[in-house]
Amino acid sequence: MTPTLVRRHRPSSTSPESRARDWAEIQERMLVPLYEAVYERLEVGDGTRLLSLGCGSGLALLLAAARGATVLGVDRDERRLALARERLLRGDGPAAGARLGVGGPAAVLPGTGPAVDVITAFDPLFRAGGTARDLAPALAEAAAHAGPGSPVVLAGWGPQERCAASGALRVAARLADPMCAPARWRPSGRDDLEDIARAAGLVPDGSGRVACPYGYADLASAVRGLLSTGAFDAATRATDEEQVVKELVEALHPYVRADGTVWMPNVFRYLIARVTVRRR
């Protein structure tokens, strides 16, 4: 891969602000089939009070609000949350009454009593700077504000062989080594989601798989979108941005179509767990 090709596909800016914007404008929409499948299965609509842990720039909340739900969201990335506010809290749209906060569930939930009917954690890491298991305390805290039987949804990658993006994400893992980088990607274990749910005191109650292909206008957009996920941050710190972009472009080449677009079929898995007893 020549330096010229690397420069061509390297984002003009990789500041935290630009990565947050790339997430909102390029990458977040790739998960719409997952959001919609979960909302359809749980019949999210008028009267639903939904809390999103790791709400990102708010697209999943916007879709829930369009169905009639009252939405609350928290995230640890203040830049993504600022974009969520731009989307949700303007004018008199369906999500104008959304409550958004930085940090954990306490940022938007009252001190006591049931406040939500559905809890979602579509981002397994909740951008917490830790392992997926670090999500369990936030889930338990949120579940304390939901009644018995309320659904809590976790999501993660499907089988590696059905996720074209796994090749690109392995680049992030390999370049980040030997750093002990908690946000580094690793393949999903068969029972990862169930383990997190049980650690939070929840009872697994069904699962599903959803096709979420990653589609980009060109290689440059694919690089920007994937870098915006945060999965490559540790690799960039361990090596340098040029090396990460070089190897990412190489990993993406098998998925470049004749018209220059990039198409990567993926399958995501979601788990529905249930709140069993009132914790407060």
Describe this entry's structure for a reader.
Residues 126-130 and 179-183 have low confidence and may be disordered. This protein is 38% helix and 18% strand. It has a domain at 16-163 and 188-215 and 261-274: 3-Layer(aba) Sandwich (Rossmann fold). The chain has 280 residues and is of the alpha/beta class. It has helices at 3-9, 16-27, 32-42, 59-66, 78-88, 135-143, 165-176, 192-199, 219-227, 233-238, 241-252; strands spanning 49-53, 70-75, 99-102, 118-121, 151-157, 203-211, 214-216, 262-264, 267-274. The chain starts with a helix and ends in a 6-residue tail after the last strand. InterPro entries: Methyltransf_25, SAM-dependent_MTases_sf. GO terms for molecular function: methyltransferase activity. This is Methyltransferase domain-containing protein.
What spatial form do the alpha-carbon principal axes imply?
Answer: globular
Contiguous low-pLDDT stretches (5 residues minimum) are 126-130, 179-183
Strand content: 15-25%
Number of helices: 11
Instruction: Please state the structural category.
Output: alpha/beta
Work out the number of β strands.
9
Compressed to H and E, one letter per element, the order equals HHHEHEHEEHEHHEEHHHEE
CATH architecture of the domain at 16-163 and 188-215 and 261-274: 3-Layer(aba) Sandwich
Mean pLDDT: 86
Q: Considering the protein shown, what is the CATH homologous superfamily of the domain at 16-163 and 188-215 and 261-274?
A: Vaccinia Virus protein VP39
State the separation between the terminal residues, measured CA to CA: 58 Å
InterPro entries: Methyltransf_25 (IPR041698), SAM-dependent_MTases_sf (IPR029063)
Domain Methyltransferase: 51-149
Protein name: Methyltransferase domain-containing protein
Organism: Streptomyces mashuensis
